[in-house]
Amino acid sequence: MSVQGKICGLSDQISVDTAVNNGARFIGLVFYPPSPRNIDPNLASQLVSKIPTNVDKVGLFVDPEDALIKTVLESVKLDWIQLHGSESPDRVRHIRQKFDTRILKAIKISDQSDFEAAKNYENVADMLLFDAKAPKHMANALPGGNGLVFDWRIMQGLEFSIPWMLAGGLTAENVAEAVKISGAKFVDTSSGVEIEPGRKDPAAITAFLTALAVIDS
Ligand SMILES: O=C(O)c1ccccc1N[C@@H]1O[C@H](COP(=O)(O)O)[C@@H](O)[C@H]1O
């Protein structure tokens, strides 16, 4: 199977269309107000209104209340809910059952011991996402989307009972190495395809997805 790409934090039509037209498997939409990529549910609905059914729509939330998820789902039919906060396994199970939507649960990684947490989510989520944990001293760090990598070597030899996605600081320049080292079959990028936080670069989106296609060939 080829390496599948997610482009996250999209907030303009040109970037959404560029991602779809260059083979993105997932489109990520951020519903987390402190993020520079946060978008209104009505805009989200417009942006994804014409994307083909083979491209999954992912809504990204951080420790959301049910009400926020409900409001978003009333505007845009999501294929996945990405939970990128400190949601417990029970909270994940509740959200999955209540909203009947697949769950992508983010686990923050700085060293190998952080993968232990992943085991607690394998029975409640549909896919895991491994993102770099921001260092405590990092000013203005978000729960994710910081453009930080972790040491992909620590993934070697790890096995999970559900699919997993690699994220954190991925770019067109480093994604082939990241895939080779980690063995990732799914990858996700946000900062790495931006001109500045919250402003996607269509050329960088194209370059990232082209880099994935080259890995396959
Ligand atoms: O993108 C954001 O603003 C964001 C906010 C809060 C949590 C996660 C966020 N983004 C996700 O973080 C990872 C890594 O992003 P990056 O490529 O390092 O910028 C990715 O899954 C984003 O979807």
TrEMBL record:
EC numbers: 5.3.1.24
- List, in alphabetical order, the Gene Ontology terms for molecular function in this entry: phosphoribosylanthranilate isomerase activity
Task: Cite the N-(5'phosphoribosyl) anthranilate isomerase (PRAI) domain residue spans from the record.
Answer: 6-209
Q: In which pathway does it act?
A: Amino-acid biosynthesis; L-tryptophan biosynthesis; L-tryptophan from chorismate: step 3/5
Q: What is this protein called?
A: N-(5'-phosphoribosyl)anthranilate isomerase
What family classification does the UniProt entry report for this protein?
Belongs to the TrpF family.
Q: Which organism is it from?
A: Sneathiella marina
Q: Which UniProt keywords apply?
A: Amino-acid biosynthesis, Aromatic amino acid biosynthesis, Isomerase, Tryptophan biosynthesis
Q: What is the reaction catalyzed? A: N-(5-phospho-beta-D-ribosyl)anthranilate = 1-(2-carboxyphenylamino)-1-deoxy-D-ribulose 5-phosphate
SUPFAM superfamilies associated with the record: Ribulose-phoshate binding barrel
Q: Which domain of life is it from?
A: Bacteria
| Gene3D superfamilies documented for this protein | Aldolase class I
